[in-house]
């Protein structure tokens, strides 16, 4: 028979049980403790493009501010190739601890799943959404010695069917370029590139006659007199080039309202929500600084208001639906 506890022993047992019941949550949930101490070492941001493109530019701006605020190094790792799939796969396979982040583009999250079979990642399952960083604007550009207007470019292409080359980088840009050619009724050859740096070299060398390129990488060449921008592929304002007409208006072609690329920030799936929230709040703080926004706009990067993880997730799903319809409606358009 088990002896009864003495009164003093019973009191001690009760006190011990009460103490266990009221232990701090942080001791029971190491994830909360991790979030409070995050980051306490180097954070890397994988960019799926070579240095110099819009994704790289905005990742470096944001990464530098994060490093200053957090007191920890934030390094950019460029993993180009495979239409961003190489960088995406590397990010998806990383530990979900907040120390590897990923700067995907529309190509990564929307276009690849629609046009490439057997992707090595799933954009909706393999990543934890954090926020949208920027919604860039594509420009139709030529060498400074090229056509002076978009109508002049179209006339030149119609006079030389099949002889003009058109450059574009991301799948979104290629689709936008092909839709422009189809709508304008011109026969041109699409030359795909891995990134904006290659596009610039090709335009300047005359390998391509015109190109669709991002504002961020085109702007220095426009300001330096090497590029001429004929139109913006958007109806949104572009303060840094206020007199540049939209493509649909300049070419008098309805239906060419918007072909833009965007850059976001995500983490590997399974990253603690508290860490995701901490990163999101840091980006929101950075984007709340007018000096930071001015710095981005000076570089031709069009910052957007920091979206919440849920808002960004909804945006990706809506883009998947929108571009799926565009691809179906475009019939036999080839992107490569």
How many helices in DSSP terms?
14
Distance between the termini: 83 Å
The overall pLDDT average reads 86
Q: Residue ranges: pLDDT <50 for 5 or more in a row?
A: 1-28
Q: Spell out the helices and strands N to C.
A: HHHEHEHEHEEHEHEHEHEHEHHH
Q: What topology, given as strand order, has the largest sheet?
A: 7-6-8-5-9
Largest sheet: 5 strands, mixed
The rounded Rg comes to 25 Å
Strand segment count: 10
The fraction of residues assigned to DSSP E strands is 15-25%
Helix-residue proportion: 40-55%
Any key phrases for this structure?
single chain; 336 residues; alpha/beta; five-stranded mixed beta sheet; 14 helices; 10 strands; disordered N terminus
Please describe what this structure looks like:
This protein is about 45% helix and about 15% strand. The chain contains 14 helices and 10 strands. The strands form 3 sheets. It has a 5-stranded mixed beta sheet with strand order 7-6-8-5-9, with helices on both faces. A 3-stranded parallel beta sheet has the order 2-1-3.
């Amino acid at each position: 028979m088990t002896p009864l506890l003495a009164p003093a022993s019973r009191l001690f047992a009760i006190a011990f049980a009460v103490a266990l019941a009221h232990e701090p949550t942080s001791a029971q949930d190491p994830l909360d403790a991790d979030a409070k101490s995050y980051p306490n070492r180097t954070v890397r941001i994988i960019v799926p493009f070579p240095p110099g493109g819009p994704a790289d530019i905005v990742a470096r701006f944001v990464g530098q501010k994060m490093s200053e605020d957090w007191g920890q190094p934030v390094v950019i790792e460029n993993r180009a190739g495979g239409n961003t799939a190489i960088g995406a796969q590397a990010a998806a396979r990383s530990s979900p601890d907040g120390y590897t982040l990923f700067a995907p583009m529309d190509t990564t999250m929307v276009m690849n799943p629609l046009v490439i079979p057997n992707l090595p990642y799933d954009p909706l399952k393999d990543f934890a959404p954090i926020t949208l960083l920027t919604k860039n604007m594509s420009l139709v550009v030529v060498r400074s010695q090229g056509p002076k207007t978009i109508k002049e470019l179209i006339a030149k292409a119609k006079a030389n069917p099949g002889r003009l080359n058109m450059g574009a980088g991301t799948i979104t840009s290629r689709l936008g370029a092909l839709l422009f050619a189809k709508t304008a009724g011109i026969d041109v050859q699409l030359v795909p590139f891995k990134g904006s740096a290659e596009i610039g070299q090709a335009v300047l060398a005359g390998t391509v006659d015109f190109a669709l390129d991002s504002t961020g990488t085109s702007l220095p060449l426009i300001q330096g007199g090497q590029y001429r921008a004929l139109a913006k592929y958007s109806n949104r304002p572009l303060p840094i080039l206020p007199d540049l007409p939209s493509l649909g208006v300049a070419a008098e072609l309805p239906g060419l309202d918007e072909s833009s690329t965007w850059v976001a920030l995500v983490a590997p799936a399974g990253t603690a929500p508290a860490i995701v929230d901490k990163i999101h709040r840091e980006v929101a703080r950075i984007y709340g600084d007018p000096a930071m926004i001015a710095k981005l706009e000076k570089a031709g990067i069009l910052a957007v208001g920091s979206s919440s993880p849920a808002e960004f997730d909804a945006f990706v799903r809506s883009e998947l639906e929108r571009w799926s319809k565009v691809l179906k409606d475009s019939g036999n358009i080839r992107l490569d």
